[in-house]
Amino acid sequence: MDNNDLPPNDKKWNLYSSKKIFLPTILILLYLTILFVPISLEQESHLLVFFGRFHPLVLHFPIVLILITTGFILMGFFNPNFNKPIIIRSLLWASVFFSFITIVAGFLLFIAEAYSGDMVNNHLDGALITGISISVCLIIYESNLHQKLKGGFVFTCFLD
């Protein structure tokens, strides 16, 4: 790992690092609360349908970001000169952000168009598990970066 890319280990970095872990933790809690939100509307909302229709458009972007992140991490394992934490952090943060947008858009489409059935419920559960996994992966990477450790087995399993 390139030590020039790592922040200094002091109290200011500890405060900064705790802020970096705060947002993914909030997103995990939001994903868990989606399970308890009512899943039907009494009247159709055209605004929810409008935003929900963006789900297929933004769906593949977090998938590609996670695949690129996995590629960068694997290349960093095999070639230490290629390991750049700033690239991996940027890709992970973008993955967390766009997976949140994708999950919210899919959930809006789910409740606004009254989709039902086991396949749709499994799709929602899979999306929530994926969003939680990406957020946990970011928390693990940020804490490992703070401790100047490489990503371990658990991090790689969550990422894949």
Blueprint of the fold:
Elements: H1 11-34, H2 46-52, H3 55-58, H4 60-78, H5 85-112, H6 118-146, H7 153-159
Brief overview, please?
This protein is an all-alpha fold and 160 residues long. It has helices spanning 11-34, 46-52, 55-58, 60-78, 85-112, 118-146, 153-159.
Query: Beta-sheet strand percentage?
Result: under 5%
Q: Which segments are poorly predicted (pLDDT under 50) over 5 or more consecutive residues?
A: none
Report the end-to-end length measured between terminal Cα atoms.
21 Å
Major β-sheet, in short? none
Gyration radius, rounded: 18 Å
The outline comes out as: elongated
What's the number of domains? Answer: 1
DSSP summary: helix tally: 7
Helix content: over 70%
Order of helices and strands: HHHHHHH
Estimate the mean pLDDT confidence. Answer: 77
How many beta-strand elements?
0
User: Which structural class fits the helix and strand makeup?
Assistant: mainly alpha
State the main characteristics.
single chain, 160 residues, 74% helix, Permease of the drug/metabolite transporter (DMT) superfamily, transmembrane helix, membrane, transmembrane
Characterization of the model:
- α1 (11-34) packs antiparallel against α6 (118-146).
- This protein is an all-alpha fold and 160 residues long.
- The mean pLDDT is 77.
- It has one domain (9-37, 46-159).
- The longest helix is centred in the C-terminal third of the chain and has 29 residues, at 118-146.
- The chain has helices at residues 11-34, 46-52, 55-58, 60-78, 85-112, 118-146, 153-159.
- The radius of gyration is 18 Å and the shape is elongated.
- It contains seven helices and no strands.
- Helix content is 74%, strand content 0%.
- It comes from Cyclobacterium qasimii M12-11B.
- The chain crosses the membrane at residues 21-39, 59-78, 90-112, 124-141.
